[in-house]
Amino acid sequence: MTNTIGDVEEADVILVTGSNTTENHPVLSSYVKRAVKYKNAKLIVVDPRRIKLTKFADQWLRPNLGTDVAWINGLMHVIISENLHDKAFIENRTTDFEKLKSMVEKFTPDYVEQITGIPAQEIIDAARLYANAKACAILYCMGITQHTTGTDNVKSLANLSMLCGNLGIAGGGVNPLRGQNNVQGACDMGGLPNVFTAYQPVTDEGARKKMEEAWGVTDLPDKVGLTVTKMVPMAHDGDMKAMYIIGENPLVSDPDLNHAEKSFGNLDFLVVQDIFMTETARIADVILPSACFAEKEGTFSNTERRVQRVRKAVDAPGIAWDDWKITSEIAKRMGYPMAYKNAREIFEEIANVSPSYGGITYDRIDREGLHWPCPAADHPGTPILHTAQFTKGKGTFHAIDYIPPAEQVDEEYPLYLTTGRVLYHYHTGTMTRRTEGLNERAPESFAEISAQDAKKFGIEDESMINVASRRGEIKVRAKISDMVDSGTVFIPFHYSEAAANRLTNAELDPISNIPEYKVCAVKLSGVA
Fold first, then answer.
1. Would you call the peptide bond into 255 cis, given omega within 30 degrees of 0 as the criterion?
2. Is it the case that residue 152 has pLDDT exceeding 80?
3. Does domain 179-223+292-313+323-372 have CATH number 3.40.50.300?
């Protein structure tokens, strides 16, 4: 997030898109609801489903799946044509505005309505509401990123925010809501194939030299590594022989699961490190039991970039170890003496080699966390990014055209499927589906279907149905609901016995390599 969670309550207008916030981020959603109810903030929700947050919205735009670039360009078209953009911010802090202006010229409200299904007047009203706010916060989640155009979607939201000068100010910003408690921290620590910690490129000679000196090694590779979505097809084709998976359950979470299962079956050696016996762990050659968050010391960096202490509350069961200890012992056996005394010593190394963490110490975050970047011991941290300038200097507008989803409906597969989460379960259910109370609240998978589609395809409420795509088929319980519009089906992906990802499309965004989980074509039929 460019801004903090609490800063959401300072916004005059909040735009939420691609985020079922009340179910996926229930704590953060309370800030949004408070801002609307008690501070007179206006709320724009853009979502194809009638999520609970729409009850608080001044405007709800309901786009067709996979049309985000079109409606965002449509808002910008109205803002520019009605002279509502922030000319001073554009002049002083951005480049390539004319390229953007030229691109969005064709995205008239009527043209956008043809693509998105959003009525033209609603595009105009939302654009005016956004542009006339003193400060507007954009919140988004994986409904924006999990597309073959996910990178384009994010850049488009950044375009919109820059267009109205909403970056670097209280109550503004472009704020991705991270999906897990330390996803931000994992990325910060170099959990990406192209960077060291703090996003220092592996291709940068200076960064490599610094790491070589810190780690006592030479000749660190300068080649960018592989994303997991590239590794799985390589395993399928026999080009990757072994894999080591930590805290992931791809045999539920990967797209096109039938293909993924074949891919993992082709590995010569699979190691899984986790806290429970997951679906993926069951096929592993070696399982390494690890401690959960409450059983270890360390830090988490949350969605607002706040680095916080995590303290051990209970002992880990059995022979489970801290993840860092497992990694260190493997390194030692492979010939590199990775000798750390404890998590604190590791964090001191992190601060030493990571500029944005340079001023953070255990003592400074003993009671309250600090927002990175915090480059020096006397630096207070940075709750709001880009207040004076962007990291690169001036922000660049990107002229982005609309590209349809990779898969389209046809006579055989006439409906679009989108996937997501429910309040009571998390991700692949590794933890939540072992909790009796949560299973009582959400015991099984379901398919949300509109009343019109249920009638059209002869589906009765609460009946068991087959949902099939070009890649697989599952049996789920039908749930006739006004949550989805005609032509769209929603299925949560937590349930391994009816895994939605047997249906989803593995086509990737060419930049981020994220699969298109949020749009694919399906058909429905009753179960005999």
1. no
2. yes
3. no
